[in-house]
Specification:
The chain is 34% helix and 19% strand. The chain is an alpha/beta fold. The longest helix is centred in the middle third of the chain and has 14 residues, at 108-121. The structure holds phosphoenolpyruvate and manganese (II) ion.
Length: 341
């Protein structure tokens, strides 16, 4: 239930409503708009309705949120899109951001070269996994803590905020120390205890859609993070499994306009993991930006043929500058702005 306060409602009226909501065991999430405060009462709908808050001092009206996800819904924010700010880089609303870098942190040289390249081209954030979810237990699993140290060095050198994956809650503290955004991979989208802990960490989260997850399931996963009071969630479509065998996954670009109707959260597209093939990455990126995505996360490597993983889909570092110019033109078409760093 959304409790919309009157314009000019006092702090003590707001506090009194929050107290009554909590008295029936519901959570109260306060959202301070420009003119009015909205209190999201999340819990047993009947208990909240029985409080009879309609006539309470300072309360304007009540609106039920019919969707199973509440805090993630566009109605909860009354149509206002969230802008997530990461170390001064904005994403969401009218702001477009590019997250770029190698699939995995494989060596100091590769990481620092890639980081400098994407920074020089104007990308806003650096990606790179120190912990890698691999289909085969015999494949390279990531450098772990040594990889985190290299990421922190790359941040020191370039100033780019770091986006890196957390797979296991036991690594949360180490990852949170280095990451500006914690990536939760497609295979962990429904790892609810991990979502809750990352929510509690307060770190911005890039939440990837599971390979066979519906958009509603993605939004319910985001709700786990939001419920912990962590509002900085970026949703990421990275391709879903379909019957089409000629590419790795099917990039669900329809998710962009549909999610924009359902949620206020920023939407990021990962063309690299969907495509699995370099030649497809640029057209998919341009389509995503033109469709209204708030950002792209893309793999870039100085020498893809030598990459430890996902080389065939990595953009060649030398060509990244041109790619980014085209991407930004497509984002502009959709009315977005971006700040070069
Ligand atoms: C990644 O971005 O490094 C990754 C493993 O992606 P996904 O979880 O989407 O497969
Ligand atoms: Mn990869």
């Amino acid at each position: 239930m959304m409790i919309v306060m009157k314009e000019g409602a006092t702090q003590s009226e707001i506090d009194a409503v929050v107290k009554r909501v909590r008295s029936v065991g519901a959570d109260a999430h306060i959202s301070q708009g420009e003119l009015v405060t909205v209190i999201g009462a999340i819990g047993d709908r009947e208990h909240v309705a029985n409080l009879g808050l309609e006539g309470a001092p300072g309360v304007d009206h009540l609106v039920p949120i019919l969707k199973p996800y509440k805090l993630a819904s566009l109605e909860y924010r009354r149509g206002v899109r969230s802008v997530v700010e990461i170390d001064g880089r904005k994403i969401g609303g009218d702001h477009f951001a590019t997250i770029a870098g190698p699939c995995t942190v494989e060596s100091r040289e590769v990481l620092l070269t890639a980081a400098q390249t994407v920074k020089d081209a104007g990308a806003q954030m650096l990606r790179g996994g120190a912990y890698k979810p691999r289909t085969s237990p015999y494949s390279f699993q990531g450098l772990g803590e040594a990889g985190l140290r290299l990421l922190s060095e790359a941040k020191e050198e370039t100033g780019l905020p770091i986006v890196t994956e957390l797979m296991d809650v036991r690594d949360l503290d180490a990852v949170a120390e280095v990451a500006d955004v914690i990536q939760l991979g497609a295979r962990n989208m429904q790892n609810y205890s991990l979502l809750t802990e990352v929510g509690r960490s307060g770190k911005p989260v890039l939440l990837k859609r599971g390979l066979s997850a519906t958009l509603e399931e993605l939004l319910m996963a985001a709700e786990y993070v939001l419920k912990e009071g962590n509002n900085d969630v970026l949703l990421c479509e990275r391709g879903i499994r379909t019957y089409e065998p000629s590419y790795r996954f099917t990039l669900d670009l329809m998710a962009v306009p549909v999610l924009r109707e359902l949620t206020h959260l920023p939407i990021v597209i990962d063309p690299s993991h969907a495509a699995g093939k370099r030649s497809l990455v640029e057209p998919l990126s341009l389509a995503a930006a033109a469709a209204g995505a708030d950002g792209v996360i893309v793999e870039v490597h100085p020498c893809p043929e030598e990459a430890v993983c996902d080389g065939p889909q990595a953009l060649v570092a030398e060509e990244f500058d041109m790619y980014l110019r085209k991407l930004e033109a497509a984002a502009e078409l959709a009315g977005k702005t971006f700040e070069r760093v």
